[in-house]
Amino acid sequence: MPTLPDLRLRTFAAYEAAYARAATDPNAFWAEVAEAFTWRKKWDTVLAGDFAAGHTTWFAGAELNLTENALDRHLATQPDKLAIIWEPNDPAAPGRTFTYQELHAEVCRAAAGLRALGVRKGDRVCLYLPMIPELAIAVLACARLGAVHSVVFAGFSATAIADRIQDAGVAWVITADGMRRGPKALPVKPTVDEALAHCPTVRAVVVVRHTAQETEMTAGRDHWWSDLQPTGLHEFTDLEAEPMGAEDPLFILYTSGSTGKPKGVVHTQAGYMVWAAYTFQNVFQVEPDDVHFCTADIGWVTGHTYGLYGPLVSGATTVLFEGIPTYPDAGRFWQIIERHAVSIFYTAPTAIRSLMTAPSELVRAHPMPSLRVIGSVGEPINEEAWHWYEQEVGHGRCPVVDTWWQTETGGTLISALAGVTPSRPAHAGLPLPGVQPVLLTPEGVEIQGNDVEGYLALRAPWPGILRTTWGNHERCFHTYFAPYPGYYFTGDGARRDENGLYRIIGRVDDVLNVSGHRFGTAEIENALNEHPEVAESAVVGFPHELKGQGIYAYIILRAGLPDDPAAHARLTLEITATVVRLIGPIARPDKVQLVPGLPKTRSGKIMRRILRKVAEGEHEHIGDVTTLLDPAVVAEIIAGRR
Ligand code: WT7
Which among 258, 480, 549, 641 could disulfide-bond with 510, CB atoms 3.0 to 4.6 Å apart, if both were Cys? Predict the structure, then answer.
C-alpha cells in the first residue's frame, strides 16, 4: 500500500470531472488534493496572489517540510521498501540500494553534518555532482534544513558554475572528486576549484569520494563528505526537520532563455510538492509496487521532479543511473529494466532516436515483462521514434505518455494519463486538471476551436508554476507574463487536433533544444564572441537526426576571412572550444561557418530566417533578399555553407 493516499484519476469520466472542478473551483479542488499530504500547519489560503503580475501563491500560511512527506511518513508503513536503487556506470560494479528507513537515516546524517558546518535555513547550496546516491541525499538534506538547493548539471563548465554561484550568492558547495561516464573517469573537483577562484561568497566545499582519484583539497575550505557525517550514527538517525513556509524557496534551477544569461527559476515548498506527486501518480498511473526509472540526471528538472521528489513523496521506488545509454552497449537501459524489474520507464526522444539506430537484437534480447508504462519528455518525439518506442520497448502493451512541461512549470502540464485519457502518436494529449492551455496568434488573440495552431500559453496558474527568477522578479515578469498580459507564455508553438489533443511543435523564441538541453542562441553567441578573433556571431538551430536540433554558428572574424585553409581550420576549432570552455561540452556547436558578413536589414537587424534556411539546407527557398543592406552576402554564405 502506498503511504500517500491514492491521488489517481482512474477513468476518463473521473478525469473530466476533476478537470472541470479544478477549472471552476480551484480552491476546493486543490485543498482536497492537499489533504493527502503531511503538514505541520494547514494553509490560510489555497490559491492567492496576482497571476498576471507573475505573483501566485499556493497554500500560503501552511508549514511543512518536504522530507517529512518524502521520508518520515513512509517509516511507519513501509520502512523496508526500497526508496532508491542506484545503478552504477559499470554494469559489473556493485550497485547500492536504500530502503526508506536507510534513506531517512542517510539524509538526517548528511543534514546534521551540513548543519555542523554552518548551513542554515535559506542559505543557498550549489550541488555539482555526478548521478550518485549522495546527490539525492544532498538534495534531500538541503530540503530537510530548509537550505535552497541549486543543482548544476555536472556537464557544465567552471564559468557556468561560477555564474550560477554568483547569481544566487551561494555559500556552500557539494561536489565529488570525479565521475564515471561510459569508458571514462573524469575529474570533477578541479572544475569547481576553477570556478571558486571567482566566487568569494563560498565558505566551504564538501567533496564526496567517488572515483578515488587524487584530489587537491584547500585547507580550511574543503571537507570530505565522509568526515562530515557525525560518527554517532544512532543519535543522528533522526534530525528534526526545519518547518518551512509553503512559499519559502525549495530550489533554484538555472535554465536558458532568449537573453544571454541563464535565469534561476525558483520553486517553493508546498505547491511544487503537491504538483510533483499529483502529476507523477496520475501521468504514470502509479501502482504501489512500481519501480520507476527516470533516466534524466538530477541536474535537470526532470530528475528533480520525477527522479526524486515525485516518486519519494508517493512512496515509490526510484532507479538512479550513473551512466549513459550506450555503454557498454546500446542495450544498457533494457538490461537495467530487466535487472531491477522496472515497471515505469521515462526517457527522452534523443535517447530513443539513438537507441533505434543500434542493432535491433540489443533491444529484442530483453522482453522486459515488468514494463507497464513508458514515457517521453524534453522535446517533440517524431512519429517514427514514437512507434519504435511503443513496439520495440513497450511491445505494444504499454501506454506511451508524451509529457510536455518545462523547468518553469515544475511538473507535467500536458500528457496522456497512462491508459486513461486518449493518446495519439507524437501528441502530448490533453491538459492535466488545473492546466488551461490556449493557443494565441502572434498578436495575442486566442484561437478558438480545434484543428488549429498557435503560440501555447496558460490562462490560469497551477500549483507547480515558477514563483520568480532568483533576485530579479522583473525578469520573470518580462519573460513569461508581459508578452501576453493575463497569460503565462511558454515560448512553444503547438497544434490542437480535431479532438482537442495538443501536439507541441517546438520553440517559437530564440531558444534551442539540443538533445533535450536548452540553450539560448544569445547565450551561445556571447560565448563565441569571447574568442579574441571573433567580431560578431549569429547562432541558429537546424534539424539534427539524433539531437533534435543542432547548433549552427556563423562567425565574422575581426581580420576578415582567412585565405589559408590551415588558419581556417585552426580558428574553427578554437572557436568551438571557446563555447565548450565557457558553457560546457553539451553546447558544442555542430557547425561553424566563417562568413564575410551577415544578412542584415538596413536597420542592422540580423535576418535569422535566412540563416536558418541556409543551415537547414533550404537555401533554394530563401525568398526575397532585396531589403537587405548587402544582398550579395547571402550568395557568399550559401557558397560556404557547412
Ligand atoms: C522545453 C522545456 C520538461 C523537462 C525537460 C525539458 C520542450 C519538453 C516536451 C514534449 C515537445 C517538449 C519544449 C519546452 N519540451 N517536453 N513532451 N514535447 N517538446 O525542460 O529544459 O525546461 O525545456 O522543452 O520546447 O518548452 P526544459
Answer: 258
